[in-house]
Amino acid sequence: MKNLFQTWKQDFPAGLVVFLVAVPLCLGIALASEAPVFSGLIAGIIGGILVGSISGSAIGVSGPAAGLAAIVAAAIGDLGSFEIFLAAVVIAGVIQIILGIIRAGFISYYFPNVVIKGMLAAIGLLIIFKQIPHAVGYDTDFEGDESFFQKDGHNTFSELFYSLNYITIPAIIICVVSIGILILWDSKRIQKTFLKYVPGPLIVVVLGIIATIALQGTSWNLIPKHRVDLGISGKPFKELFTFPDFSQLGNYKLYLTAATIAIVASLETLLSVDASDKLDQKKRITSGNRELLAQGVGNIASGMIGGLPITQVVVRTSANVNSGGTNKLATIIHGLLIGITVFSIPHVFSFIPYASLAAILIMVGFKLAKPSLFKKVFKEGWLQFIPFIVTIIGILFTDLLVGISIGLGVSFLVILYYNFKLSHYLSVDGNVYKIRLTEHMTFLNKASLIETLLKIPNNVKVIIDESEAKFLANDIIESIEDFKIRAKDKNIEIEIITPNELEYERDI
Question: What does the mean pLDDT of the chain come to?
Fold first, then answer.
């Protein structure tokens, strides 16, 4: 924390941009969760200030997550009230703290890099596809939706075509001009001047507000459904907060809901932690255990005052990185700004067009899914490219966790294939076939070795070189012994070179 303010010149503008992106996402996720709208903003504030302060992640941003929206909506209906659901959120936070204490965060180190790259690219494409309808003025689907099937009856791709029936010309103009400004702001021409200290997204939002005000009373007026709505207008301060109902502590459904939230939120957080570390230009490594502790504390606080469950989220983290954020001050500032503006000038948000925010998010999405990333992974070989593409397709056509699971499954199959092909080396010198085993021969290598042994012709000499082997599974040993028996009928001479020290698999 002592170095928190050393990079404030980079972190304050970045926090401002994340704040502009986060507010509509918090609202949209709350609506999708069928929870009070303000509950999303509470989660955003706590995720920024409290979790941001405790977390070990320098650039990660936390808040309500779209991946939990369906779980939250179902849980509220199943438990009977939002207040009882808040009790489940508090308990989920306790579970996450326990997971952090027992060091369950280690699993973040076992996500393959290629799957994380696929996740980032998929989220980039998803952002673009989901924002195009907002860019043309069709604002039915909620901000932050990550699922293929949407609540408005469409899916990610059918919505693109359907939105063309509801084109709003002012929204298109605002979005196109905004994208042009953002591209210009990233150019060397601007970055060499004092204007580099002014965030491009801020310029876009200010111009969007000016356009909204200027178009009022004209045929191009942007009606309220095309603009951000905090949903708190006219409500007394004390009515914005909801407190948990712990009267159902004897209800098993409460603990089942809490466990579900804790597990899903923790998985999403650990995936996001790994992704944010990949985005970090300084390549700092975040402790998964500390992150679980931070998220647990955040969820306890959020549940106690009426907020949605919190996770670390990639979209806001990406916006932070792309805006130059280098330290956790940026995420804390974004949380402070949500709180300050929501309670002091909420009416200003009603003039921000969704089209302006769509432009900002489309640029964030493009930077996550640059064509150069696809080219780079493709050049690494198809063993890397296949899990990468499968992860992208899985996320686009399902949701984040399902898509990641599919990517991990394919990665495991690739590992099996890799082990199958590289378990041993065969060389032929005249009538002599030499099979050199690798260091660790497990049951995964059994099929490959048997396949090679079956191809050896009659009347030859076979040398099985185990000199480099450190471990031989029983499956491998039995396969060689079986080959010795078959070799007698095929007039095959066998020589085995054994190492001095070899660990054999023992039955347990």
Answer: 93
